[in-house]
Amino acid sequence: MTAFGVDFGTTNSALARADSDGPARIARFSRGGGKWTRTFRSVVYFEPNPEGRGPSRELAGPRAILRYLAAEEPGRLVQSLKSFLGARDFSATRIFEREYRLEALIAVLLRKLFSEAAGVGEIAGTVVVGRPVRFVSARSDEDEELALSRLRAAFATAGVEDIVFEYEPVAAAYHYERALDHDELILIGDFGGGTSDFSLVRVGPNARKERASGGARPVLGNAGVPVAGDVFDGRLVRALVAPALGLGAEYRSIFDRVLPMPRWIYGHLERWHHLSFLRTPRTLALLFDLQREALEPERLAALVHIVREDLGFPLHRSVEAAKVALTRGEDAAFGFEHGPVKIGAPVTRAEFERWIAPELESIATCVDGLLADCALAPADVDRVFLTGGSSLVPAVRALFADRFGDKRIRSGDELVSVASGLALRARELAA
Prior knowledge:
This protein is of the alpha+beta class. The protein contains 14 helices and 22 strands. The chain has helices at residues 61-70, 102-116, 141-157, 168-177, 205-212, 229-241, 263-270, 281-293, 297-308, 312-328, 349-355, 357-373, 394-404, 417-430, and strands at residues 3-7, 12-18, 25-26, 29-32, 35-37, 40-41, 43-47, 57-60, 76-79, 92-95, 98-101, 126-131, 163-167, 184-191, 196-203, 219-225, 250-252, 258-260, 331-338, 341-348, 383-387, 409-411. β1 (3-7) and β2 (12-18) form a beta hairpin.
């Protein structure tokens, strides 16, 4: 018997296999130079074709990033595809004269994820795929169904047609439960790149027996909010990057009025996968016009350079580095340089926490609402298991420590616990 779990994430993806017994095995992926990682960066890279008839090569994951950074003539790097699954206004994009539907783009990533995974063998048997409680771009139940149908089609295109969906925080509960020798009521908090999702689940020996006998799974409730790592990054961009690129600056209109720079331009900067939307002939023409009429044209020149050179990935990698530094310490130095663009600024953890305070409040409201819907108080929860990259942000952990007490919080395997749990869930279904 083989069972697989696939965690297709906004920022990172992971793959795990569970056999008849024992823990799940996490796939490894080469980063080059003899280095390996347990996560697969959720990016797709298309190399330009000198003959101009579509891309000459498709890459994904760590190999895609290495190729993109080393290319003399960069191609097209596409990221955060999961964020578009529930968006009805996005169905396809044109890459080097060839149109790619969203499902096809995701299928490129999945095929590479499967083919480059080491240590788990060929995908076969029962396959369980993670899904958020609420897709980041979904505005209705119909949008949620659209997201699932697109994701199912992408897997079918990648060669895996028979899949089962599972909520990602519920999957993390399977990972947490794998060695538990007593019963607990746990709150799972899964913090990804696009969404923060929560589940209240009863786990332990009695829960396992109930599931094995065909009884109802003891999931008390689920909730989610479209706030996570990408939004946190966006707040750093707004505070540290956008002002250097013209946010708050002014230009002189054709009617000789002095007006502020359009804020919608900088909104695209805050989500790195939206930066390429500015790289259209029409928008670039607008940016050149604004630069010509700007009272501080050098700031707009820096923005034009970033957009024209499609520097979303390296820019946000610098932002991510600052965020990680603030997770480990009380202050950090943000820096980004490319050609004529030089941005540097100190930042403190206190400032960062102030900038993300509205998002933290949204997370707190979601958790409190889930407890209320299940008629539970924080004291009724035995443990809180936090997973996902953004669970490492100190302000996120403090939010749960304030409600449940630090002694009840558990964490670990933040980037692969969902994949592990999905594989264990698949094994349970296959048994």
